[in-house]
Structures are given as C-alpha cells and as structure tokens.
Design brief:
By secondary structure, this protein is mostly helical. The chain is built from 7 helices and no strands.
C-alpha cells in the first residue's frame, strides 16, 4: 500500500505529517535569514581564490553560522520524517512557502528591497500551493 493511499484511506488530517513539514519550513527559513544576516555583516567575499576559501572556512567559527548550519540539518531530519507520511508530490509544494516567508522576513528584518515582480511571483506561488493542497 502506498503512502498516498494510506493517507486518504484514514480520511483524517495528518497533523504529525504537517507538523514535520512546518518544522522543515521553520528551520529552513531560520537558516537562510541567519546566513544572509551574518554574511551582510562581513566586508564581502575576498578577490583571491585562496582568500575566498579561507574566508568561508572562518565563517564556520561564527556561532550564528553554526546555528544556521544546525538548522539546515534539523530541517533535513524533519523533512525525512515528513517523507514517511506523504508522497513527495504532495509535500514538496509546501516548501515554496519558504520563498514567501524568507521574502517577507528579509524585507522586514534585513531591510531588503521588495519589488512588484516579487509580489506577483509570490501570489502565483501561493495560488499554486492552494491548488495542489486541495488535490
């Protein structure tokens, strides 16, 4: 019996599965925002190839970067748990919400620019998610 059939056969909302998806989103968004915030605090990527590697290596000692990498790992664990509950073609569209959340939070907390193209694209992403979620 496949996962999708089991989910529909129960006829109930799979709360645990959706919590796994939510945790994946939260950990992913946190990691992306922290990485951007911390990289914005630097003077930028050096020009030389060896200097670039050294710069990136040094970032591993930043506690905020460590927390972002840990967050990515936790997002992976939550996603693996979600994959035990749902088919990929059902669960993956929810990950598009990460784009929406990161966009909003980057404008609010990181003072990044919001364009009309981003807003229109976001509306399209959310519309597509609604269609897929109702399938």
């Amino acid at each position: 019996m496949n996962i999708k059939h089991e989910r529909k056969m129960n006829g109930r909302f799979d709360m645990a599965g959706h919590i796994y998806i939510l945790l994946t989103l939260l950990f992913t968004v946190y990691g992306q925002l922290v990485l951007r915030w911390q990289m914005a605090q630097t003077r930028g990527m050096p020009e030389g190839g060896g200097d670039k590697l050294l710069f990136l290596f040094q970032q591993f000692f930043n506690p905020w970067i460590i927390s972002a990498l840990l967050s990515a790992f936790l997002a992976s664990l939550a996603w693996m748990a979600a994959m035990t509950r749902f088919e990929l073609n059902y669960a993956y569209p929810f990950m598009s919400l990460a784009f929406v959340i990161v966009m909003v939070f980057s404008v609010v907390f990181l003072n990044e620019l919001l364009t009309i193209q981003s807003v229109i694209g976001t509306i399209m992403v959310v519309g597509g998610l609604i269609i897929i979620a109702r399938a």
